[in-house]
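Hi V.,

You were right to ask for the full record rather than a summary. Here it is.
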Amino acid sequence: MSWHFTTDPDTFRTAARALLAAEPARNTAVLTMMDTAELLGWWTGPDGTVTGVLAASPPTVLTFGAMPVEAAAALALPDGAEPVTLRGETAAVEAYVRADGRSWETVMGIRLFRLGELTPRDPAPAGRARTATPADLPLLGDWAADFAAVHRYEPRDDYTDFLTERMTEGRLHVWETPAGDPAAMAAVSRTIEGQARVHLVYTAPAERGRGYAAGITTTASRAALGSGATQVLLFTDLANPTSNALYRRLGYRPVADHLGVRFTAGT
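Predicted structure:
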């Protein structure tokens, strides 16, 4: 049993193909990171079968895919690198932090949901959905920065490239008020191994409570289904009962709980 690492996405795909294809929902974050990650890893069991994967970008920001707890407990990154933040299924993250021994703090409890039958809000919220345009980018950049701050994600200096990639591929959506003002946004990941993930769901503070989050999530979910995804996924903050209840009403069902942690100074 051992960990193997590479910086080459094709090498990783070849090694982990069976696990990624069998468990696309549990590996959604790794699947959507693997072409841009700075480090990729896979765990082989006693019979040589790959049963765990991870991605890091940069190496100090670590994301677990599906993996057994013994793989998490045995993990040592190459060149002695130590993650600063870690996110993954709760049992695996807890196994890693116990073995690592450094002090840490919880950043967020997260729940992975998978869409069953999409059930749009009835009546639909006022306004309409549209795809984002270049004129939206300054405002959506501010929204993305606020989203990251609220959810305690690693911040970016500039969200222009991040949003432009999604906009140019038609994967970034905006909900407009009846007056034509942007009120909410949501993005969709690329469809990989039959799964796509709705993310960056955000409503402007002044526009909350009007159903716009339901409208834009429905729009993004339909876009994911239209892209050929057989599994449409999203993550929610367990500390936000409003969003968790909303996604259930729209037809999303829980898959697994995840934990995000940050390592702190000392032991």
